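S2.1 Query sequence (D-alanine--D-alanine ligase)
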Amino acid sequence: MSLNAQKFGKVAVLFGGASAEREVSLMSGNGVLAALRSKGIDAHPFDPAERDLSDLKREGFARCFIALHGRFGEDGTVQGALELLGIPYTGSGVMASSVAMDKVMTKRIWLAEGIPTPRYTLLHKGSFERREVIEVPDTLGLPVIVKPAREGSSIGVTKVMGYSGMASAVEAAGQLDADILCEEFIEGEEVTCPVLGTADGAQALPVIRIVAPEGQYDYQNKYFTDTTQYLVPCGLPAGEEEAIQALVLKAYRVLGCRGWGRVDVMIDGKTRKPYLLEINTSPGMTGHSLVPMSAKATGLSYEDLCVRLLESATTDAGAA
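Output structure tokens follow.
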């Protein structure tokens, strides 16, 4: 079936931005831009770090594909601006984007809904004593994961192996966010599960199992090395993949997400219980990215995935 590219009108691909994930966003956005243009869609690059968002209205853009990652792109701020401009956009709305960007708020909602997530302690920059930092492993055990509450792409994340490493890890996270999340480390397999769609129409894509060098799935190994293995099919025991997909769908829906997203999960190696780490509402679309990889396993190409996401563009008002 041929695509009616004209129905989309003039499309802005928002990428770059002012967050710590700018470099990754540039890679994602260029990929999306090329894919949409290959389908005959009138798509144009738009970097909010270099241009005023009001230009979108003035220049007649009909919809936006958000390929921004992190703050000022994935946290509800750009979504709110587009709501005021009345321009449909891809991905979750203002509230879901804002909540999902905050790992602690996400955990609170998931826990209230009975969704398993690792135990945690929250430290507020400037309002905790050194003693509290040292005592975190007493509560959560070792190793412990320390990270900013509102960053992505593993930026500012430290795996602390002993008490002596706590202070520097907290300081590093505190340079990026006033809220510092200390999280129980789940020893086991790391997987991720993308979701496409909205509400009852949302569907979980195949689970991807991630095997990183020495278990370090950090910023470098996510985007700039070819030694990390991504297994699709994931090779999990029978029934585990389906259980994770069902859990991820619930987690996606209770936050009110729409369009697409990706949930990162750790499976306890001893109990086989899955623990949800976080949800990404504007996942990467680079050559190393996981949503396109999972979609491809279902027969959906990168280009067709981009078109499908663009078709789902709406506003909170339009989705109501």
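The chain is about 35% helix and 20% strand. The two ends are 30 Å apart (CA to CA).
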